[in-house]
Amino acid sequence: MTDAGPDAEPTDDGLGFDPGAPVPTAAVGGGGPGPDAPLAERMRPETLDEVVGQEAATRPGGLLAEAVRSRELTSLVLWGPPGTGKTTIARALARAVGGTFVALSAVTSGVKDVRAVIDEARRRRAGGGRTVLFVDEIHRFNRAQQDAFLPHVEDGTVVLVGATTENPGFSLTRALLSRVRVVVLEPIAPAALSTLLDRALSDPVRGLGGAVALDADARTAVVRAAGGDARRALGVLEAAVRRARGRGAATVTVEDVREGAEQRVATYDRGGDLAYDALSAFHKSLRGSDADAALFWMARMLEGGEDPLVLVRRMVAMACEDVGLADAHALRVALEARDAVAFLGMPEGELALVRAVVYLAAAPKSNAVVGALHRAHEAARAHPDAPVPPALRNAPTAFATSLGHGRAYVDPHGRADAAAGQRYRPDGLEDLRLYEPVEVGDEREVARRVAYWERLRRRARDGEAPPPEPR
User: Fold this and answer.
1) DSSP H or E stretch at residue 102
2) What does the DSSP assignment read for 39-92?
3) In this structure, is residue 15 part of a structural domain?
4) In-domain check, residue 198
5) Is residue 331 within 8 Å of residue 316, measured between CB atoms?
């Protein structure tokens, strides 16, 4: 939101909107961008049919296609990464249904803007017109601001089309979500980006009119630099063409693209969906024993400015959850990475991260401890009143002793085999089995020991001699 100065007009509705610039209202279908506009703006699709790379969202019979066919549009939220067509689709829908497209940004717009839009929409509606209100980065509005749109959406004053890069399930209010449909947009696939490049290169009016060519390596470089972002792809192409023309060439080379793209900033939003998705990919790569994939996601997060301790915490959790007892050293290695990062700082601490990543990915895997935990909780919930056996109860007072607490307890250290045959489980749960080890890595030895102690306890209870096995 824009910062209000000391003389700013106070808001009186408690919604927290800051006063902003005049509302940019324009009827869709007027003059397009001029010849000096950026290539990405000139090549913006005007109809839903021209949109490429979002076939799942624009498919025939789907929500968007039906809105175009019926000329009836319901309020919706377009959710996807930057450059995937959110604004383009909103404009195309407004044009298709004959509505006036009004754009607001949740970053710069304030309460005056919203009121002006609603007032104008009411007048337009009274005259038989419709208003499609596009709110970019709608997740930036707080809960009260989002809810302020509800009555105007419900009574049909505006058709709300929101755009967000954040998960609507977390960033939008439940009340607003119940009144809109969510359309998911994906990063533009390489083939679709290539199609966009061809359009831009050949279009005689909005594009480059065939004046330059793009060699194969340069095309690959543009697509790679775009990273699924159509706007960036066209921006990189435009810069590369400008460089090629500057040296008098009619073909764009990979070197032109490199210079035009400059250094690409990692797409990463700490605390946002992408951060959690990358962290999830990191964990799953470790679990799946793919060290190279795990290292890639580690570097991707670090390049994006992630706190290295976030990765360390995930590795500690992974060592407990996915390696478990299959490798007795896994947790120690993860904790050593934590200590090394704290002691050395970055970037020196990255070597400790790499060491831990590779070790955990290569370690044998077992989630037997996870299963044991779940089964333990299930048993505790199923038997909430299971009494503690009297022999195991505490006896801090003479009264407790008189009740027999601890009287029958047998200290296992008093036996040569350290197995007392004591009953440690509640009545009725003598055969309870929660930990089920797997025959993997170090857990083979753990399984052998667990079975050994169980046999000793059973033999002691039955009065048999202990087996000749080392403990």
Assistant:
1) strand 100-105
2) HHHHT--SSGGG--S-HHHH-TTSHHHHHHHHT----EEEE--TTSSHHHHHHH
3) no
4) yes
5) yes
Q: Where does a domain end: 184, 204, 225?
A: 184
Pairing of strands 159-164, 181-184: unpaired
Domain assignment of residue 19, yes or no: no
Q: Which of 60, 174, 146 is nearest to 133 (CA)?
A: 146
DSSP calls for 405-448: TTTT---GGGSTTS------SPTT-TT-------SSTTHHHHHH
Which residue's structure tokens are 């913006």?
44
Q: Is 290 inside a domain boundary?
A: yes
Where residue 327 falls (left for φ over 0; alpha for ψ -120 to 50; beta otherwise) is: beta
CA distance 57 to 42: 23
User: Which residues have CB under 8 Å from 258's CB, separation 6+?
Assistant: 221
Q: Which token pair is 297?
A: 């996601």
pLDDT in tens, 15-60: 333 333 333 344 444 456 777 789 999 999 999 999 999 999 999 9
Instruction: Please determine, for residue 358, whether its predicted confidence score (pLDDT) is greater than 90.
Output: yes
* H or E element, residue 286: helix 273-287
Residue with tokens 């609507």: 168
- pLDDT recorded at residue 301: 86
Residues 97/67, Cβ–Cβ less than 8 Å: yes
Residues 34 and 177 in one domain: yes
How crowded is the C-beta side of 88, counted as CA atoms within 13 Å?
A: 25
3-state SS, residue 150: helix
The number of folded domains in the chain is 4
Question: Do residues 211 and 109 touch, judged by C-beta distance below 8 A?
Answer: no
**Quick one: average pLDDT of 401-429?**
70
CB of 86 closer than 8 Å to CB of 137: no
178 and 247: one domain? no
Q: Is the pLDDT of residue 181 over 90?
A: yes
Confidence of residue 195 (pLDDT cuts 50, 70, 90): very high
Which pLDDT value is given to residue 418? 58
